[in-house]
Amino acid sequence: QVQLVESGGGLVQAGDSLKLSCTASGRTSSSTSMGWFRQAPGKERTFVSQIHWSTGIIYYADFVKGRFTISRDNAKNTVYLQMNSLKPEDTGVYYCAATGAVGSGWIYWGQGTQVTVSS
């Protein structure tokens, strides 16, 4: 099992920045990647970004490219999401997720942290 704890959400104005953190504990060696998803009110949870623990390969959703940056600190088992130039449509609950072994998909989830961007 892998436990994930997010932090860093809050209420900001459009154009501001926030940095989310997600720290993993437990059997972290069994996980290959960590990522961020978000869920806006009344909408489905959508992929935001992911990073591979070993290779550092990164993927972003098109709607955050150039604004969000994902990074990792392997020593701290922590992944960060630096969010710049925030827009009201970025509002939602941001969830950290971790995969299991290769091919298992996103099977571990954090409790979520609220990000609210006012116009």
Task: Explain how this protein is built.
The chain is mainly β and about 120 residues long. Helices cover about 0% and strands about 55% of the residues. The chain is built from no helices and eleven strands. The protein has strands spanning about 1-5, 10-15, 20-25, 35-40, 45-50, 60, 70-75, 80-85, 90-100, 105-110, 115-119. The strands form two sheets. Strands 2, 4, 5, 6, 9, 10 and 11 form a seven-stranded mixed beta sheet that branches. Strands 1-3-8-7 form a four-stranded antiparallel beta sheet, with no helix packed on it. Strand 4 (about 35-40) and strand 5 form a beta hairpin. The model has no long low-confidence stretch (mean pLDDT about 95).
Summarize, please.
This protein has 119 residues and is an all-beta fold. It contains no helices and eleven strands. The radius of gyration is 14 Å and the shape is globular.
How far apart the termini lie comes to 40 Å
Helices and strands, in order, run as EEEEEEEEEEE
- Count of helix runs: 0
| Integer average pLDDT | 94
Question: Strand count, sense and closure of the main sheet?
Answer: 7 strands, mixed
Class inferred from helices and paired strands: mainly beta
Beta-strand percentage range: over 45%
Supply Rg: 14 Å
Helix amount, in percent? under 10%
Shape: globular
Low-confidence stretches: none
Strand tally is: 11
